[in-house]
Structure formats: structure tokens, C-alpha cells
Amino acid sequence: xxxxxxxxxxxxxxxxxxxxxxxxxxxxxxxxxxxxxxxxxxxxxxxxxxxxxxxxxxxxxxxxxxxxxxxxxxxxxxxxxxxxxxxxxxxxxxxxxxxxxxxxxxxxxxxxxxxxxxxxxxxxxxxxxxxxxxxxxxxxxxxxxxxxxxxxxxxxxxxxxxxxxxxxxxxxxxxxxxxxxxxxxxxxxxxxxxxxxxxxxxxxxxxxxxxxxxxxxxxxxxxxxxxxxxxxxxxxxxxxxxxxxxxxxxxxxxxxxxxxxxxxxxxxxxxxxxxxxxxxxxxxxxxxxxxxxxxxxxxxxxxxxxxxxxxxxxxxxxxxxxxxxxxxxxxxxxxxxxxxxxxxxxxxxxxxxxxxxxxxxxxxxxxxxxxxxxxxxxxxxxxxxxxxxxxxxxxxxxxxxxxxxxxxxxxxxxxxxxxxxxxxxxxxxxxxxxxxxxxxxxxxxxxxxxxxxxxxxxxxxxxxxxxxxxxxxxxxxxxxxxxxxxxxxxxxxxxxxxxxxxxxxxxxxxxxxxxxxxxxxxxxxxxxxxxxxxxxxxxxxxxxxxxxxxxxxxxxxxxxxxxxxxxxxxxxxxxxxxxxxxxxxxxxxxxxxxxxxxxxxxxxxxxxxxxxxxxxxxxxxxxxxxxxxxxxxxxxxxxxxxxxxxxxxxxxxxxxxxxxxxxxxxxxxxxxxxxxxxxxxxxxxxxxxxxxxxxxxxxxxxxxxxxxxxxxxxxxxxxxxxxxxxxxxxx
Length: 731
Fold this sequence. Notes:
With 731 residues, this protein is of the alpha+beta class. It is 46% helix and 11% strand.
């Protein structure tokens, strides 16, 4: 037990022994290094994923828009004050990194972080929730006992022991992230390879596709590999024998995630947590191998940390030194105080709570949709993928009876309200207030939202017959207007692939499932000149609106739909109906043929094989010397856009490491530059008041300055030509 876990079984035999185990003195080096790395990553994260560089776009100061806070009474501060709040968060993260005024810095960070987090549910994700948890944990830990400014000015804190529970809580948290994520991936959709099927097309999986087909790469590598790693990583990191190889795999896994997903600092934050599972003195042993001349700027390597009042020491160790009981208490605490007991109690309660929360959805039933719970604390990472085919918002003026429609997403910048009943309720109430400004009083608002989750049929997620403004919703009761997910139809997904593979590249298909008694109203564009409806299951009645004719279709029957007209599909069977639209966009097909002909002609011109005369207006375009020619022909516009896109792709693929690094650096420079300048403008406004609007507009325009691709390319070439010289680039 001691060799495997670092403690003996008898240490768990009584409360007193457990108390001493959790408060056992431990080297602070690993915890101090994690504190530094976490604070540094948060300093980088705040201008990026937290949105400091785009607060004016995010909160739209002065505009009455629909927002989605956890609690409806939460409102964003005025814009300049929001920038000040982010400055407090940033300095809190910086203080955590440096270990400067550590407790105050932690409080500055977590108070502002959780306020911003609760302010907008649409930005919630698992890793943002994890950052807040770690910030809270660090607040009550002694993470400033190693390589910190506090330790430099306070000798009692410098290189002092920390209690074992500091490591226990962090290790347990990371174990839960891995393990619960693995348990959630035991879902049939993940095991069947439907959750992230598109990932296998990414270039990162090219080596695997040399061995497997695309389908097998998705099933075995993406889904199978992700499941096994999440289930086992938390365990294998604990043991000396398996830790080295596990570190290699999790490092590769998180580096891949950094390229596959736009998830900010999360992969690097998880990499920073990995050394927590190593021996606590690993930084000392690592930095002791560096040259002596660097010791002044590196973390200390001295061993034998000093005693700390936060830990409990064995009495036997003190008796061997000939100290009395009173003297020993002054040197090293041997008896548990309230501080030690609170630390042990917190550890037990916190770990139990973290295991419970991902399965607490039977309490917060109002937040359950097709997936359970408030998105963010369930650790069901990447288990569900969604696509939206159709969204319609209908309002009815209760006084006049007038009916109208709203553009989906009007009065808001978010799109996540389409999948969550709690957000849909907030959005409907907000829309009712907004419509009152347009002389539409007490409107009834309904939503017809069609969603496919994990490649199932497109189906309604909410009842389109319900007025959401007046509909009941409670966080602790099931949502009465949520439509059930038609899981019984999941086996059809295997047939979807067969149907899609049987079609040519120009033919598209959409699979629909609907409930008895409901109707889908659809419009077939004139571009879709060859659209047909095929019934797969159940019975439907198709009404063509202009012709005012009705057609009844049963299983395996189909009909051609008129283009440029509305039609309605009623489900008249007792069971849900399933049908599919098969269509060809004839306009796109014609455009593609003409564009392909232009590319073919261009290739012949470049090869010198074209013998027929070319119209003058095409010569410059086909030769690639079009410059600033104003092209009005839509076919030529499509050709030029595609040509530029292909050239950009080729340029990026052929770019050297130096060019890629330079482009990346320039992009990040302007992001942090805007964060700094907009924050400076906001601080000036708070101190001295608003300047004239012309001056403010000029300042914001200067902050919005960005580098174009052409400028970046020119500067990169300049850097390449002057590798051996010292060059200064004026930005």
C-alpha cells in the first residue's frame, strides 16, 4: 500500500489516522510550480477565451439585447466598469502566478471570474468550469510556499511544508475530469462512433488512415482511443510503473486537442496538471540539473522544507530530539487544531460533491434537455454533436390577432438558446419585451426548432404549439414542452450511410422524423428543381399550398415536389413518421460546371495547349494578373473567390515553420494589443470622463488595427531575406 499509494491501509482505519494522513507534511515544490503555470495560463486566457479583447462586441454597451445569465437578476456592468472588472481578474491571475499577495490575488481572480461565468450561460463549457474550480481550490491552499514573492518577503512561508490534502484535492479533481469523461463516453452514440465522426477527416489522423479506412479511423482511433484514455489516464498517472508512458499518451492527446478544437488554454492547463501526479519534489530534482549560473532565475533546488503550522508532524520525530511537549508545539504542531480538521473535512466533502454533481440531474430537472443538466459540470466532453436544419420563430399579437415571423437570433448574438429550454424561456420573455416597442402587445411566441443530435433524424426539440412566454418552467421540474428524443429510430443511422453512399456527389439528402399530429411547412427553392419526398416509416399527408391538393404517402412511397412553392407535410400515422428529402441544386450544378470549365481553360492557357482565341475580359483573369479589375459576372466572381482560396491554402501548406510562427505571433500580438488599448481607453474614461466622440472613434479605430494577410506575407519575406541581420519591423 505504501509503495503503490503512498500510505498504509491502517491510515484509513480511524478519523484520527485519516486526519494525520491528510495533514501530513509534503514538499511544496510541485504545488508551487502548478500555481505558477495555472496563473500564467489564466493571464493568457483572459484576453482570449474570457473575451477581454472583445468586451465591446460581447456586451454591446447601451444596447437592449437578450442575455442569458444563470440568475435573471445578474446584469453586466457598464462597459468601462466591465473592463475594470477584467483588469481585477487579470491582476488576480498575475498575482497567483507570482505568488504575490496570494490570498488576495486568488479572491480577486475567483470573484470576478465566477461573476463573468454566471453572467452568460451561452459561453459555458467544461474547461471554463474547471478553471473556476481550480481557482477556488488554490484560494484555500498554501500554494505560495514555493517560488513566490510572498515567500521572498516572509521567511515563514518560504519553502515551507504544505499538507497532503492540498495535493489530494487537485489530484482527485483531475482524476474526476478524466474518469467521469470516460464514463460519459460509454454512451451508445460514442461507442458506436457517431459523436465525433467528422474528426477522422482532420490531417492529424492522416497517419492512421494509411492503415485504416475513414470509418475505422473514426471508430477505433477517435472514439475507441478517446474512451480508453479517459477511463484509464486518471488511474495510470497514480502509479510509478505506468506514469511515464501515460504522460506520453496524455501529452500527445492534449496536443492533438489543441489542433482539433478551439478550446483556448484547456489542453495546456491539463498538461500543467499532469506533473501533480509525480513526486512532489520533481521541480527540485529537475532544476538541480541546470547549470549553476542559472540558479538565480530558476526555482530553488534546496531540500528539507521548513515546518509549517498547516501540517501535522509525528510526535516520535520530536521526542528523538529531546523536546518537551510545550516546546514541540512551538516547533511543529503534533495535535490537530480546527485548521487541520477543517482541511480534512473540506477534502472529503469536496471530493464527494464532485463525484455527485455529474449525476445530480434528477434535482435540476428543468435544465435537462436531450442531454442532462447545466452544460459545464457533467464532464460529457465532445459526447454530443448537433446540426440544425430549420428554425422558425412565430409571434401572434393577442390583441389584433396578427401573426408574424422573426429572424432566428434577432436581438441576441448567441445561438445556444436553440438547444436549451432554460435559455429558450429567457429568450422568449426577452423577445416579448422587445416586440412591445414595436406596438406588438402581449405577444404569443412559439419556436419550431429542428435538430439532429449525433447524426440522427432531424426532429423537433420543443413543442411548436406552446407559447413559450407564458409556458411553465422550473429548474427543479421536468420541462413540459420538451419533445422526446426519438431514440427508437437510432438504428436508422446505419441506413443513412447506405443511402448517402448510393447518391452521386451532386445529390443531397435530409432525413426527417416528426410526431403524430404535427406538420412541417417547407419551401422548395426554385434552385432545387429536382426535389422528391420519400417516406421511410409511418404515413404522411402532403399538401401543396398553391395547387391546394393533398397526397397521402405510406412507407416506401414517394412524390415529386413542385419548385418555388410551399408545401406542408402532416404526420397522420399513430407512430412517428420518417421521411427524407432528396434534391439536386440545379443552379449550383450549372455554376460548378462553368467554374470547372474555367479552371480547365486556365490550365490549358498556362500549359500553352489552348489554341482558340480567348475573350479579352478573360485573359487577365486566366493569367492570374486580374489585379483590381471589377468583375461583375457572378460565375467569374465564384471562380476568383475559389482561386484565391486555393492559393491561400497552398501558401499555408508550403509555409515554413518560421512563417507559421510569425503569422501566429502577429495574430496574438494584435489580440493582446487590442486588449491593452481598449482597457486603457476604458480606464481613462473612468478617471477623466468620456472624450469627444470623434476622439473616441479614432482611438477605437486605432485599437481595431489589424494586419492583413498581404502585409504579413510581405513582412515574413522581409524577415526571411534578412535572417542574418538585425531587422526592426514597424507595426
